[in-house]
């Protein structure tokens, strides 16, 4: 630890080039990893106590009784922690060489074949281990190498033809939509962990490089566009015109008296303020009114209100701003006149898989839905103007063939409205399922359409969460721009 931190470049060069230090560190990491059992319970990997290389107290008998492989797992994680701390303390050029060594000799040589295998048990164990590794790595140099290993170093926009350019990245994203729900959930958790790491390349690689030109927006001069109806182009997904959605969905007609909106700006006659930002109360109401009343159940259960999401969103948004304050993100979107709106839009492999899964929310297991919405809500939380516009503004004019998070949810709701009509006693069944999920009702006889009902509950909660995130972000932006 002391030797690697010596500030002289000659010492760093000597340590990394003329000694076996790098090989010793990585070979030991590899041997600890290879000593792990071939299959382990992901929950054991996730919940084993946090590890510190200098405080490795153990009792072989006790460890073996808790779960098979606990001792080898702690040995591996302890040595990983030591390597991570060593790289963190090291002189900068020595840290870079050591981190590159870990990438080549451990991640590429040992972990990549494990992640690319076809055995479901093997995939699950190696993904759970990778998730734990991501959680634990804190040194800047090792984090950078690990992210380049997982996602590649490419920065130019993806196209449908280049998604498989990096086989590991492609495989991991595909695993978010695996036939095995367990693998899907574990891989989604891995990405949830990854996007929260303080490294700009993660978000750029997964989502931002596809949004840079804002070519998800319709490219027509204002005079060529269809006249606006209710503030929306007539071919947009206009819920008010949809016979399935009833008459009370106008963004202005709901929640106008709620006390949390009293600080919103006064309503203007059109849908956009002069700076181009859609007024927040219209966005909030658009999300809150998406799910029709007969598919809502939270208002009948105490403690499941929208205000809980507001508190959480406020705290999380502050944390996320802290993570990305050093990143070069402009406060306003790139001006449209500087954007290449004619280039074809591709949402990117990662968002494609997330949107596809979101579109199947009524037909997927509850735990999968929770994880898909968790990743999407975390992406929505980041204060990047294009990400915010694409994920949280229901009023953008989408280019033909493009979809946004809002348009995906609208299609789900349209499908739901048709299905509700075919299910007798839909609302009482929905309330019963919600109470069971909250532990307020004992598990009793099976309820028909359980997957659908649980999906509807997740959908309602997700819309409340998105509304809260939009509200908190708007107020943070308006308070920071006011004198």
From TrEMBL:
UniProt feature coiled coil, ranges: none
Annotated transmembrane regions: none
Biased composition (Polar residues): 253-271
Basic and acidic residues composition bias: residue spans: 219-228
Span of domain FHF complex subunit HOOK-interacting protein C-terminal: 347-439
InterPro entries in the record: FHIP (IPR019384), FHIP_C (IPR045669), FHIP_KELAA_motif (IPR045668)
Start and end residues of each stretch annotated as Disordered: 219-277
Top-level lineage group: Eukaryota
Family: Belongs to the FHIP family.
Designated name of the protein: FHF complex subunit HOOK-interacting protein C-terminal domain-containing protein
